[in-house]
Every structure is written in C-alpha cells, then in structure tokens.
Amino acid sequence: MIPCPISDATAVYDVVPEANRKVIDALDYFIVENVRSARRFLSKAGIQRKIDDLEFVELNEHTREGAAVEAMVKPILEGRSAGVISEAGVPGVADPGAMVAEACHLKGIRVVPLVGPSSILLSIMASGLNGQSFAFNGYLPVKLPERAKAIKSFERRAQVEHQSQIFIEAPYRNVKLAEQLLAVCSPATRLTIACDITSPNEIILTRSIESWRRVGLPDIAKRPTIFIIG
C-alpha cells in the first residue's frame, strides 16, 4: 500500500519517506485508482525503472468486487509483488484500494502499509478535538433535509459520546455544506475546517460555530477539505 502526496503542489519526499523508494523500485506491477495520476506520481518519485515498462491495472469506484479484483490478485498469487496507489494520500482508507487488500487477506497474501500522509489523521492531529475517540463518516447525504438530519445526529454523538465526527464532501459542494453546518449546529459546537492539507495553502482552523458565524468561512470552494465536529 503506497502513499502519495495529497497535494500536487507538494514534492513527493517532503511528505513521503525516502525509504519508500526502495520498495517502489522493486515493483513492476501496480494496482491504481487512476493510471495517469499513478504514472505522474512514480515519475515525480524518481523511480529507477522506465514508466513504460511497468504494468498498471485500475481499481476505482467503478470496479465491482468479484472477478475483476480476483484478476488483479492473480499475478500476486503467481509470485509477483504489487503496489497499490490511490489518487491522493494513503490507499485503502476512504479508497477502493481496500477491496484488493481484502482479497489479499482472504488468499493469505501479506499486505504491507508504507508510511505516508493521510488527510483524515492529519486533520484530527491538528484539530485540537478529541483524538482518543473519533469516527470517519465519509460523505453526508446530498439532499438538504437528509443532510441536516445527519449533521444533527453526528453533533449529538460528539456531545454525548465525546467522539470527534469526521466527514468529507465533493470539493464543489464544500461551501454549501459549511453553510449548512453553521445553520444547523449549536453555537457551542466546535467545527474544524482542514483544507488543502500539506500544501503551501493549507488551512486548519477550529472554532465554535458561534465564532465561525461571526468571522465567516475561509475560502474552501473547490478545494479538498476535511470537516470535523466535536
């Protein structure tokens, strides 16, 4: 499981250990979320092999579990090693790479995670919210009434269980979600907005809903963002 930078503006070895290169250099078979992005990452990583000599197969949100994943694992069963690369950050977390990891475990194939940046963990690390108990909830419902209900449910869990609630949104819907959070949540509830993590334009701010209402939201339109309430 090979992490890559979250932001295109960040150099590979600013956020990924140099030791990962030795592992990557030993591979010629990659299971990736997007071939173009993976090739660009490997080129920036300065691998020894020629990119055109490598074999890539795509595993993404359109891949169905079953025969397609079995076919990806078959070369590993035959003796090859494979590298799994996500679009950004760490594979297997909020990422389809989990499917191939599961298939490998079922067949007794060792799965090795390499060190690298996870926007989920980095955001909770810097948030000042509860890092002893937290939950990643993925995407909230798109429709406003269902989303408002989900927000109130997560807010109750944060208050009653003292558990930080983490979620994400498609970047083009960030502003609408943030505005609804300010409208729905209680004034004392704390909200972390973590945007463009590890990039030169990184924003990680935690304020009460009351404070966010007073100072206004940062510019998060169309920028990868993590939201945490606690």
Which keywords apply here?
three-stranded parallel beta sheet, 8 strands, Methyltransferase, Cobalt-precorrin-4 Transmethylase, Domain 2, 2 domains, 230 residues, 37% helix, Cobalt-precorrin-4 Transmethylase, domain 1, 9 helices, single chain, five-stranded mixed beta sheet, alpha/beta
Q: Overview of this structure, please?
A:
By secondary structure, the protein is α/β, with parallel strands linked by helices. The protein has two domains: 12-106, Cobalt-precorrin-4 Transmethylase, domain 1 (3-Layer(aba) Sandwich), CATH 3.40.1010; 119-229, 2-Layer Sandwich (Methyltransferase, Cobalt-precorrin-4 Transmethylase, Domain 2). 37% of the residues lie in helices and 17% in strands. The chain has nine helices and eight strands. The strands form two sheets. It has a five-stranded mixed sheet with strand order 4-5-8-6-7, with helices on both faces. The protein has a three-stranded parallel sheet with strand order 2-1-3, with no helix packed on it. α4 (67-77) packs across α5 (97-106). The longest helix has 17 residues, at 144-160. It is elongated.
Could you provide a short overview of the structure?
With 230 residues, the chain is α/β, with parallel strands linked by helices.
Topology:
Elements: H1 12-15, H2 19-25, E1 29-32, H3 35-44, E2 55-58, H4 67-77, E3 83-85, H5 97-106, H6 119-127, E4 134-139, H7 144-160, E5 164-168, H8 174-184, E6 190-195, E7 203-208, H9 209-215, E8 225-229
Parallel strand pairs: 1-2, 1-3, 4-5
Antiparallel strand pairs: 5-8, 6-7, 6-8
Helix pairs in contact: 4-5
